Amino acid sequence: MTAYEKPSLDISMVEGVLRTHLGSKVAEITPMAGGNLSSVYSFSHEGKGYVIKFSDMEGAYQTERYISDLLSSQGIPFPKCFGQGKVGHLEYSIMERIDGGNLADFSAEQQNRQLPELIRILTRINHVDLGSTSGYGWIGPKGDGAFQTWKDYLVTSFAEDQTGTFWENWCELFQSTCLEKDVFDECYSRLMAYLPYNEPHRYFIHGDFHQWNILSDGTRIAGIIDGNYAYGDFLVDLAILDRHMEGREVIRAYQDYQEKVGIMIPDFKERLIGAYYFKGIDGLRFYAKMGWKDAYYSTRNFLLNLIT
Predict the structure, then answer these.
(1) Angstrom distances, CA of residue 292 to CA of 114, 224, 303
(2) Which among 134, 147, 126, 148 has a CA at the least distance from the CA of 275?
(3) Does residue 242 contact residue 250 with C-beta atoms inside 8 Å?
(4) d(Cα 74, Cα 76) in Å, to the nearest integer?
(5) How remote is the C-alpha of 204 from its chain's centroid?
(6) Which domains are present in the chain?
(7) Start-to-end C-alpha separation, the chain
(8) Which residues does residue 55 pair with via DSSP β-bridges, in sequence order?
(9) Positive or negative CA dihedral for 129, 131, 136, 141?
(10) pLDDT single digits (tens) 109-124
(11) Cα–Cα distances in Å, from 255 out to 43, 127, 240?
(12) What is the secondary structure of 204-241 as a DSSP string?
């Protein structure tokens, strides 16, 4: 299995899609860095800034309008969705452009100063009102989770048969990449052991909450963007942030804030460990597929040495 490559488009094709969709001329079409699975471009239209994303994965943006409405309507700095469509084999989504750079591009000192605000925003995201929705795991276009239980979600996520998804034939990675089956199986076994601690909790999960999906002006958080949205234990997002901001005392800062605002988190340690294993083994196969060996071995060693 070769490393995944996101779709490549020239500016003239992007311009044609936008002109067809919007019905008028656009300006300043510029490729944007980032986006592991999407090709992203910024542009201007009638004096306002927007972003268009392209993906060759079916259903890549099917929940984006729902998520945009859910979060932006509850005061979360998340871009509004202005349109979606399909051209050839590519799907696209047009979003509001939030000015700012990736938090990852700022200095360690600047990131540290914004950590308290980031934790406040994360807490608000995880506690948005979910209304009458139901289910766990991946969020569908109408807002319901795809599974009856958290366990069903996890088992399906790592099942061998992933036909028609990004993970189709993923078990071939054991033969063709650095992904080690014995390591994967050991970490999966540990994940299942901690499952009972995570399973009862149902909240909104961003699912990819790290500095590359957080926009900043250098002093304040400007917005939150792309995620792998799901319903389940919100400590999944904390596990992601902590692993990406290692050494920044993220866990301590998070716990201090939860205590300050009166949010009690039962079984915190066990749930966080379960979250580390869930996102960690998902990360192992992702890094292997992308050919990111350094990230793979760093995550591998963290999981195997995780004190349980």
Answers:
(1) 28, 25, 17
(2) 126
(3) yes
(4) 6
(5) 12
(6) 11-96 (3.30.200.20), 101-304 (3.90.1200.10)
(7) 33
(8) 91
(9) negative
(10) 999 999 999 999 999 9
(11) 40, 15, 15
(12) EE-S--SGGGEEE-SSSEEEE-----EEE-THHHHHHH
- For residue 143, give the DSSP letter: S
Averaged pLDDT in 10-residue chunks for the chain of 308 residues: 76 93 90 82 94 90 94 96 92 94 94 97 98 98 97 98 92 97 98 98 98 95 96 99 93 98 98 98 97 97 90
Phi, psi angles (nearest 5°) of residue 178: -80, -5
- Cα–Cα–Cα angle for 255, 284, 90, nearest 5°? 100
Q: Residue 167: helix, strand or coil by DSSP? A: coil
CA angle 189, 238, 266 (to 5 degrees): 75
Name the H helices within the chain. Answer: 11-22, 64-72, 108-126, 150-157, 173-176, 181-198, 235-244, 250-261, 268-290, 293-304
Q: Which amino acid is at 104?
A: A
Amino acid at 165: T
Q: Give the sign of the dihedral formed by CA 78, CA 119, CA 244, CA 112.
A: positive
Give residue 80's identity as a one-letter amino acid code. K
What 3-state class would DSSP assign to 49?
A: strand
Type of residue found at 81? C
Q: How many CA atoms does the CB half-sphere of 191 hold within 13 Å? A: 23
Position 43, amino acid: F
Q: Which two tokens stand for residue 265?
A: 């988190």
pLDDT tens digits along 226-256: 999 999 999 999 999 999 998 889 999 999 9
